[in-house]
Amino acid sequence: MTQRVRKILHADCDCFYAAVEMRDDPSLREIPIAIGRSREHRGVIATCNYPARTYGIHSAMPTARALRLCPHLTLLPGDFDKYREVSRQIQAIFHELTPLVEPLSLDEAFLDVTDVEGFQGSATWMAQWLKRECLARTGITVSVGVAPSKFLAKIASDWDKPDGLTVIPPERVEGFVESLPVTKLHGVGPATGARLEALEIATCADLRRQPLERLLEEFGKFGHRLYELARGIDERPVKVERERKSVSVESTFDRDLPDLETARAALAPLCERLEERLARHGHPPLTGIFVKVRFDDFNLTTLESRGLATDLASYRSLLEQAWARAHRPVRLLGVGVRLLPEGARQQLSLPI
Ligand SMILES: [Mg+2]
């Protein structure tokens, strides 16, 4: 039995928020600009343009650090209503190609075009059409990766940015994956990356030489995933998303946080990550915030509040109440927001 080869596109707008700003004000094109909340609000950079990147600025970087790297950086607060509108136009173009669209954020999506009959079935031509239409109708350039799986399509879209189109046909998967650094693999973050490096595993070719048992020993269940990815295997389907109800981030700590004081200190970096994730979703309207705490006895408690601001002080106050329920060391901490349902957004225009 032969498995059917899939055709997956990963489309990713080039520095999306900055691109919208430069489209609407060409005087911003040649100077370093970034979209993000101010240093005073402990903000992080959501997006920056390519001139800003030459200073080493990138998304998720604290605004304070970005301004140290480039003091004349033009910092814009961002017009997220506008970005969401451009995103809707771009997602609509994706849907003209196929209903199988999985958005990852405002400016990024996977498309499964395996069964698309137009373009003589050529995924490369579909990708070219997508890029052309997005540019013509919205003025935004999109980089597209084409591959038989999600993780390779995503790597491919990043391969030749900006305005890139990289195709990894099935017969080239083997050779492409071989020389791929393991840090490019889906799910390999800094911690796993460091452990792979300590084991002198730098490329997927190195990874392939490891027996599955060894990887399971070193990385638990994720070892199996590494074994497959190193061979270019990634069967995850493109999932047409139900409506997102919340956005959150969480951390499981290597060592339990012994008391409330250390737990409070762990909140700030979590809030920064949440801020960055909210920016990726275009700061959607919220109905409330929540804190999630797992104690060292594995009991989990979640505390919600309607209408509080997403600032550190509000999360601190929720954490204090949550911690008071058990008075125990903390194993996991999470912070998040509840989103206003899509249907209610059209009627209401809430401040965010
Ligand atoms: Mg992007």
TrEMBL record:
<comment type="function">
    <text>Poorly processive, error-prone DNA polymerase involved in untargeted mutagenesis. Copies undamaged DNA at stalled replication forks, which arise in vivo from mismatched or misaligned primer ends. These misaligned primers can be extended by PolIV. Exhibits no 3'-5' exonuclease (proofreading) activity. May be involved in translesional synthesis, in conjunction with the beta clamp from PolIII.</text>
</comment>
<dbReference type="GO" id="GO:0042276">
    <property type="term" value="P:error-prone translesion synthesis"/>
</dbReference>
<dbReference type="GO" id="GO:0003887">
    <property type="term" value="F:DNA-directed DNA polymerase activity"/>
</dbReference>
<protein>
    <recommendedName>
        <fullName>DNA polymerase IV</fullName>
        <ecNumber>2.7.7.7</ecNumber>
    </recommendedName>
</protein>
<keyword id="KW-0227">DNA damage</keyword>
<dbReference type="Pfam" id="PF11799">
    <property type="entry name" value="IMS_C"/>
</dbReference>
<feature type="binding site">
    <location>
        <position position="12"/>
    </location>
    <ligand>
        <name>Mg(2+)</name>
    </ligand>
</feature>
<feature type="active site">
    <location>
        <position position="108"/>
    </location>
</feature>
<feature type="binding site">
    <location>
        <position position="107"/>
    </location>
    <ligand>
        <name>Mg(2+)</name>
    </ligand>
</feature>
<keyword id="KW-0479">Metal-binding</keyword>
<dbReference type="InterPro" id="IPR043128">
    <property type="entry name" value="Rev_trsase/Diguanyl_cyclase"/>
</dbReference>
<dbReference type="InterPro" id="IPR036775">
    <property type="entry name" value="DNA_pol_Y-fam_lit_finger_sf"/>
</dbReference>
<dbReference type="GO" id="GO:0005829">
    <property type="term" value="C:cytosol"/>
</dbReference>
<dbReference type="GO" id="GO:0000287">
    <property type="term" value="F:magnesium ion binding"/>
</dbReference>
<dbReference type="InterPro" id="IPR053848">
    <property type="entry name" value="IMS_HHH_1"/>
</dbReference>
<keyword id="KW-0238">DNA-binding</keyword>
<dbReference type="Pfam" id="PF00817">
    <property type="entry name" value="IMS"/>
</dbReference>
<keyword id="KW-0460">Magnesium</keyword>
<keyword id="KW-0548">Nucleotidyltransferase</keyword>
<dbReference type="InterPro" id="IPR050116">
    <property type="entry name" value="DNA_polymerase-Y"/>
</dbReference>
<dbReference type="GO" id="GO:0006281">
    <property type="term" value="P:DNA repair"/>
</dbReference>
<keyword id="KW-0515">Mutator protein</keyword>
<keyword id="KW-0808">Transferase</keyword>
<comment type="similarity">
    <text>Belongs to the DNA polymerase type-Y family.</text>
</comment>
<dbReference type="GO" id="GO:0006261">
    <property type="term" value="P:DNA-templated DNA replication"/>
</dbReference>
<keyword id="KW-0239">DNA-directed DNA polymerase</keyword>
<comment type="subunit">
    <text>Monomer.</text>
</comment>
<keyword id="KW-0963">Cytoplasm</keyword>
<dbReference type="InterPro" id="IPR043502">
    <property type="entry name" value="DNA/RNA_pol_sf"/>
</dbReference>
<dbReference type="Pfam" id="PF21999">
    <property type="entry name" value="IMS_HHH_1"/>
</dbReference>
<dbReference type="GO" id="GO:0003684">
    <property type="term" value="F:damaged DNA binding"/>
</dbReference>
<keyword id="KW-0235">DNA replication</keyword>
<dbReference type="GO" id="GO:0009432">
    <property type="term" value="P:SOS response"/>
</dbReference>
<dbReference type="InterPro" id="IPR001126">
    <property type="entry name" value="UmuC"/>
</dbReference>
<keyword id="KW-0234">DNA repair</keyword>
<dbReference type="InterPro" id="IPR022880">
    <property type="entry name" value="DNApol_IV"/>
</dbReference>
<feature type="site" description="Substrate discrimination">
    <location>
        <position position="17"/>
    </location>
</feature>
<feature type="domain" description="UmuC">
    <location>
        <begin position="8"/>
        <end position="189"/>
    </location>
</feature>
<dbReference type="InterPro" id="IPR017961">
    <property type="entry name" value="DNA_pol_Y-fam_little_finger"/>
</dbReference>
